[in-house]
């Protein structure tokens, strides 16, 4: 991995969307500990996967302490960033918000749904650098967390040591589903555009004969270009995609602006 000049950060806020007890959160805390003097965690009290940037404006939020510098919030990942910035660390400067490490990729069409990415984007809206971290897996009961543990600290040091620090963008980093030694490197990638998401609804009936449903998302990644995030992961490389909160389609804006010129 390339070396770079790196100045250790003073304080990092860690969150996720898998919840305070998720194994990936402890990996993220370890990664944060490699780059900062202080690590503070404010994570959802339960799994909030798929929550994007939802914030709860119509229900109370409760903070539960889980030891030194560790808290859970009865809300979404975005709520956790808001509470972390506005309450838990309201009198302290936060240098970076680390979101993850998610159990599963956040690529292509998943990015818009992701609570992991949503938390990092929320930090960006608040004027703070944010980064989203995710670990791919092939079997849920055998997630290669060690790969994230080995590769992510160095990647963050490179990005923080870059002249663009503090970032105005949001790095979305996905680690491939292989052992650390099998990773072939790091590639800057494009967010995949070929993924198609379809809802699968399973209807069931409870013991009171009331119907309910389970929602599942079926994904077809199509035939992505070589520089797209899914292709990078398939080549056993870490995918780094630089996201922005400006989702305006600049090309179509120029093409269609004349429609309303008068």
Largest sheet: 9 strands, mixed
Mean pLDDT: 94
Number of helices: 6
- Stretches where pLDDT falls below 50 for ≥5 residues? none
Q: Oligomerization state of this entry?
A: single chain
SS-based class? alpha/beta
> What would the principal axes of the Cα set say about the shape?
globular
**What is the spatial order of strands in the main beta sheet?**
3-4-2-1-5-6-7-11-8
Order of helices and strands: EHEEEHEHEHEEEEHEH
If you consult CATH, what is the topology? Stationary-phase Survival Protein Sure Homolog, Chain: A
Query: What portion of the residues fall into strands of 2 or more residues?
Result: 25-35%
* Count of extended strands: 11
Q: What is the C-level CATH assignment?
A: Alpha Beta
Range of helix content: 10-25%
Alpha-carbon distance between the two ends: 55 Å
**How many structural domains are formed by the residues?**
1
Q: Taking Cα atoms only, what radius of gyration do you get, to the nearest Å?
A: 19 Å
Name given to the CATH homologous superfamily: Survival protein SurE-like phosphatase/nucleotidase
CATH architecture: 3-Layer(aba) Sandwich
């Amino acid at each position: 991995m390339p070396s770079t000049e790196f100045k250790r950060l003073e304080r990092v806020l860690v969150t996720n969307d898998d919840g305070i007890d998720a194994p990936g959160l402890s990996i993220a805390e370890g990664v944060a500990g490699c780059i900062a003097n202080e690590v503070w965690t404010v994570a959802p009290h339960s799994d909030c996967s798929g929550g994007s940037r939802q914030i709860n404006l119509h229900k109370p939020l409760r903070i539960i302490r889980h030891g030194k510098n560790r808290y859970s919030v009865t809300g979404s990942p975005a709520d956790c960033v808001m509470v972390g910035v506005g309450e838990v660390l309201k009198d302290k400067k936060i240098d970076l918000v680390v979101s993850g490490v998610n159990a599963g990729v956040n690529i292509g069409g998943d990015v818009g749904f992701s609570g992991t990415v949503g938390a990092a984007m929320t930090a960006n809206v608040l004027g703070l650098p944010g980064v989203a971290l995710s670990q791919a897996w092939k079997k849920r009961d055998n997630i290669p967390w060690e790969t994230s543990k080995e590769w992510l600290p160095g990647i963050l040091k490179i990005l923080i040591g870059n002249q663009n620090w503090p970032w105005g963008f949001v790095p979305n980093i996905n680690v491939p589903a292989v052992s650390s030694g099998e990773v072939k490197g790091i590639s800057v990638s494009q967010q995949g555009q070929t993924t198609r998401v379809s809802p699968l609804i399973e209807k069931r009936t409870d013991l009171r004969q009331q119907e309910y449903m389970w929602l599942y998302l079926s994904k077809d990644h199509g035939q992505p270009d070589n520089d797209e995030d899914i292709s990078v992961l398939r080549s056993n490389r870490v995918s780094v995609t630089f996201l922005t909160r400006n989702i305006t389609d600049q090309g179509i804006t120029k093409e269609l602006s004349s429609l309303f010129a008068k």
